[in-house]
Amino acid sequence: YHGIPHFRFRNCVIFVLHILAFFEFPSSLSWTSDIRHMEERISVPCGVTEGIEVICLLLLLADIILMFWLMGRAEFMKKKWLIAALVVLSLSLIDWAISMGFQCTETNRVRRILRPFFIIVHSSLMKKTVKSLQRTLPEVVSVLLLLALHLYVFTLVGMLLFPQPQGGHRKHTGNNTVDLTASNQNSSSNANQTDVHTTGNAYFTTLSDSFMSLLVLLTTANNPDGNFCFMNMFLAVIYNQFRGYFQNSLQASLLRRRVGVRAAYEVLRDHSTYARIATTQIREGVPKSDVMTVVEHANIPKYIKTALKRDLDQRHDNYNHLTLAEFQKCFELMDTEVKFRSKPEVRWFMNRHLRRLQFMISHRYYNYFGNVVAIANVIVISVELTTEYDRTLNDSTSSLNIVNFAFIIYYLVEQILKFTALGWKRYVYEKGNIYDGIITIILVVMEIISISIYGLPLSRHPRGDESITLWNVVRLINILIMFRLLRIIPSIKAMSVVANTLIDLVRNLKSFAGILIVIYYSFAILGIELFHDKIKYYDQGNSTTPDVLRYECGSYQQLEYWANNFNDFAAAIVVLWDVMVVNNWSIFLKEYAVVASEWSYLYFVAWWLLSVVIVLQLFTALIIENFIMKWDKSIHHTSEPTTRRSSEFEESGHFMTVHDMFRDSLAEPSEEQIMLQITNHRYLNLQQTPPLTPH
Length: 695
What we know:
Blueprint (H helix, E strand, L loop, with lengths): L3 H16 L28 H24 L1 H4 L3 H22 L8 H5 L2 H5 L2 H38 L8 E4 L2 E4 L11 H10 L6 H12 L5 H48 L1 H4 L9 E2 H10 L4 H12 L7 E2 L1 H8 L20 H11 L1 H24 L1 H6 L4 H24 L1 H6 L1 H24 L13 H17 L8 H15 L1 H23 L15 H4 L18 H12 L4 H11 L4 H39 L3 H4 L12 H6 L7 H9 L16
């Protein structure tokens, strides 16, 4: 059940179930979501997506039933997530039956909002993240109440400072509201007062509009209350809860791992032929051959398996038996995610002069010189683009093309010398060499293409036509040269730590991106249910006035946001993205308040709170924790002796998982905790009680 084939098959089923949203009504199969140019959507016949959906639901139901059979009823009832999954499956099947009963005419399908639950329930790290968010909510709510009080007080103050003038009234023109107070003022003495009122009361008309105006202001870049106060308080609360919960969760995971290793030792010792012969037993332990067999057949990553075998091969004492302490020490290698690779040795040439050249190329100063050359190349590009931009990109004999030609020749010679001097194994061992080699090969190919079409840059009479093709080639060459400058990052400690933190974030995005996918999916479906086809476009026929002049400045229509709507799943995702990055999200607030009702504010504010205030702040907390751990490890690594630091790997350069971030702050479980778990385990029956041996 826990094998990779079953795991991948279940993930494929979940993926197919979720991808149906693009094909179900309203279908996203159209060239544009702009309601002004909408053509007839490609609609899937009734029963096609529903048939695929019910197959996926039944397969997931079979998975839950299989898990129930494997666990047993008593153990299954302890798993709240599995019980919840069973409830969601039941509701989904009932909702599916209702839809089929109405022959697909019933468009409000609750089951689509519940689908992302299956993504969470089958990811342990995502479940930890959800629980962390759940624990964070009480503290976040307290800050939210303070924020709401702050906005409410200033809403009342704003309405008192900018009241509606007496006799003023408002009228609605289409989807836009225009204040006509100024037109009702007849005396010049009231004109200035009218201008002040017109400016102020545009944002303080009603209590709800005033509150939303201040909330939008809070999210802008020029609002100190939001940027420097409330957002930082949210971050502090979420970071504190995130670190505390994950540390406790990973502490429990460490206990389970230590119990597993200790239980494995006891089972091997209990079933060992050598351990059963009490009269001839020389030393307590398990045969190394048995441990080697277990490692060989274990379902663990290859690099960890290699590290375990290497450690076992180095142990020759105790008559090829492992004591408890040795067994535990060996399997502590599983705690690391570092891929142990021994650095290949350089095969030195026999010739004395070649060996001296080989030593120079393998020295770190050779890389430093290459970094200086790369920086010089980029500086030349910057100067040429500043002084001769047009000639640089459109003339094959320009100074920049000639200089780049010389630099590319140096890059090619540099990589050939490196490959020859170090040997291919040592060359590919370092990722920086692979990066340099790939960039250099592409540069050489692009330069050959340029030379074959336009001739050598030094030629006074270039061949071919100076066309757009040359412009593209020159651009690509210069872009690749600038990317090659990234080779200097490992040479600068602070820059290397930051770069590795960013790389770790990309690799650790699995669970946090999963949370974003879940909330995006559910809110997109909910938005379709609430606001589908609410926004209308009324063609003005023969009117020659463009839309940007017919509508109020800054409105949804005047800004031509017609493609941003909830008419299909793909368009809904784009709208949610715009609101998450607070890109003119006040436009959506106002428009949907007009076409639907002011209750639509709740939907958009809930999305902003969940995506920006909670999930993205959690992501920021991950960045902070990752960077702090990377920086501390790099400082500790620098203080160690050089021989120790260079023996296996660069600590600051290896991939750090979420578990790695908290590993140093975790406490080793005591012997009593481990033995209590083993003796009370329902599936572990040993022939004799394990001795209490110090760890």
